[in-house]
Amino acid sequence: LHLPVCVVEEFGELLGYIDSDGSYSRQGRISFGNTSEVLLDRFEYILRQFCLLEPKRIVGAEVGAKAPDGYRTTKRLFYSYVSSKLLVAFFDNLRKSLLRVDLAPLWGAYLRAFINGDGCVDVKGERIFIIQKGGAKQNLVVALLQRVGIPARFGSNDQCYITGARARRLLAILQSSSGPLTDKVCGLSFPDR
Fold it and tell me: Tell me, what DSSP letter sits at residue 121?
């Protein structure tokens, strides 16, 4: 990657949002859906500022979410999308390069956005929870966590709990990147690991 670090960080963040609660297709459609308008605003800002694309926002239906401990919430879902085959090709190459480059700001930005979408940081920063269906994205998150010195794994339930000193270290990495870090109070019970 031969881009300024700040731009690389923004693209890492964008890819993290897409990998957690978004998608992109070979036809060039890039989308991100979330109940947090703060995250949608950030996703759209990066697309406008660094990709010169104008995203469209759609207000979706109310969705119910059930956390592992049974806590249930209902929130309005928002979607934002753009079309750009060039950006899709760039994301393919960025994902392939993510583990080959030694660029901690890129990893931190990706992880922060990914955890914003598919995770939870408790208010004290002592526990971080990530949930992701098995496969390549799980493997990528584990590999990036290991790259920043945080051993982690997903259990058979597709959940990863990071607690104590490891959570504090990861929180410091997540906060060192630009962009929002949502402080979700998920009502989750975290086992000691």
Answer: E
Q: Average per-residue pLDDT in the chain?
A: 79
pLDDT by residue (tens digit) across 66-97? 544 445 555 567 778 788 888 888 888 888 88
Identify the bridge partners of residue 120 per DSSP, sorted by sequence position: 129
For the four alpha carbons of 49, 147, 171 and 77, in that order, the dihedral sign comes to: positive
Picking from 178, 180, 142, the residue whose alpha carbon sits closest to that of residue 4 is 178
pTM of the model: 0.80
What DSSP assignment string belongs to 21-90?
Answer: HEEE-TTSEEEEEES-HHHHHHHHHHHHHHH----EEEEEEEEEEE-TTS-EEEEEEEEEEEE-HHHHHH
Classify residue 99 by its DSSP letter: T
Q: Is 87 exposed, middle or buried (0-12, 13-18, 19+ CB in 10 A)?
A: buried
d(CA 163, CA 53): 39
Nearest by Cα to 90 from 184, 176, 24, 174: 24
Distance CA 139, CA 52 (A): 31
